[in-house]
Design a protein that fits this description.
Blueprint (H helix, E strand, L loop, with lengths): L2 H13 L2 H8 L3 H15 L4 E4 L2 E4 L1 H24 L8 E7 L1 H6 L1 H11 L3 E7 L13 E4 L8 E16 H7 L13 E3 L12 H4 L7 E2 L3 H9 L4 E5 L9 E4 L6 E10 L6 H24 L1
Parallel strand pairs: 3-4, 3-5, 7-8, 7-9
Antiparallel strand pairs: 1-2, 5-11, 6-9, 6-10, 6-11
Helix pairs in contact: 1-2, 1-4, 2-3, 6-10
Keywords: DNA-binding, Transcription, Transcription regulation
Family: Belongs to the LysR transcriptional regulatory family.
InterPro entries: LysR-type_TF_proteobact-type, LysR_HTH_N, LysR_subst-bd, WH-like_DNA-bd_sf, WH_DNA-bd_sf
């Protein structure tokens, strides 16, 4: 077995199909299928079971996956050692994050990291869901709750705060909000209830709001509704400097605290490049949350 065999195996395991893996590898699916069959024959073990849903790992495939991912991390680490200027980060890194963090924190934090490391390329995947690092949807992910399963390393990045907010125009048109009782009858803005992918995002339920007439799975859409005077909603304090039309409401009575967590595949701890990037990201994100919340 050589690294190229493991590389093809990993692609099929992550894509769960020959066509998806072939597209990622720029390899004909039929050729890929023959390579996988030859690998199975060489190992005298069946690695995949084909079903209408695609290619699923067998027990033997699951065992091989652990070793293949370790080999991948070792190859990445070796390549990094031989590439670029010593001490400088190079190559491509993809980070997945919820869209509030991706829109209002990561752009400036990552721009600063790239300024100090000109050979670095960074991709932000902003999606309202949990990322699958085993399938290499991203090299690192930021989440709003600590995962309880999987071969992952988890690091707390920072706490952040959220408050109710509305535009000055909305308050002038519909009256001030001086207590939680004043929320009755107000048009609320928040997440689509059945698309809340993490319980930590169910802000309105926590403060006793059951009905959400204006809802989106995007933090940015919610913020823009608020900016245009459409109603009342919960906003990240770090996003408020980007929306000067908004004011916090009853912060001494309703205040929420959440945390960001940095999640990495367990085997990536051997990749020095990702270790250094994770340190810079954590430091930059903490500083930026403190700076922006002070302006809110």
């Amino acid at each position: 077995m050589d690294w190229d065999d493991l590389r093809l195996f990993l692609a099929v395991a992550r894509a769960e199909s020959l066509s998806g893996a072939g597209k990622a590898l720029k390899l004909d699916p039929a050729t890929l299928g023959r390579r996988i069959a030859r690998l199975e024959q060489g190992l005298a073990a069946r690695l995949f079971v084909k079903s209408p849903q695609g290619y699923a790992l067998t027990e033997a495939g699951q065992r091989l996956l652990v070793h293949a991912e370790r080999a991948e991390a070792a190859m990445a680490g070796a390549a990094e050692e031989l590439r670029g200027v010593p001490g400088s980060l190079t190559g491509q890194i993809r980070i997945g994050a919820p869209d509030g963090c991706a829109n209002y924190l990561l752009p400036q934090v990552l721009a600063a990291i790239c300024d100090g490391n000109p050979g670095l390329e960074v991709q932000i995947v902003a999606l309202p869901r949990v990322f699958n690092l085993s399938k290499r949807e991203a090299d690192l992910a930021i989440a709003v709750s600590r995962p309880e399963a999987g071969r992952l390393t988890v690091q707390k990045l920072t706490d952040y705060h959220l408050h109710l907010a509305a535009s000055r125009g909305y308050l002038e048109a519909h009256g001030a909000i001086d207590s939680p009782a004043d929320l009755r009858g107000r048009r609320m803005i928040g997440y689509i209830p059945d698309m809340i992918f993490d319980k930590e995002l169910d802000y309105l339920a926590e403060i006793g709001v059951a009905h959400v007439p204006l809802a989106s799975n995007s933090v940015s859409v919610q913020l823009n509704w608020l900016r245009h005077g459409a109603g009342v909603g919960v906003v990240h304090d770090f996003a408020l400097p980007a929306a000067p039309e908004l004011v916090r409401l009853i912060p001494d009575q309703i205040s929420l605290t959440r945390a960001f967590w940095l999640i990495r595949h367990a085997d990536d701890g051997r990749v020095e490049r990702l270790n250094r990037f994770a340190d810079l990201l954590a430091q930059g994100l903490r500083r930026e949350v403190v700076r922006l919340e002070a302006l809110a």
